Amino acid sequence: MNSVLLNTTEAAKTLRIAPITLHRWRKAGYGPEHIEMGRKVYYRPTDIEQWIETQKRTIARHAD
Fold it and tell me: What element of type H or E holds 43?
């Protein structure tokens, strides 16, 4: 079991976003899965990586 947990600041740094953005995403039901322990919020690196993979977009090319 991978027991590494990142707090909001550390997770935001990994995603290269502001911690407040990650907080807003969480409240909106968006972003990587998180773990709540009382009033503390943590993220597993594997959940962040999986979420990033779901964000991939394919560019549609038009045939001319």
Answer: strand 40-43
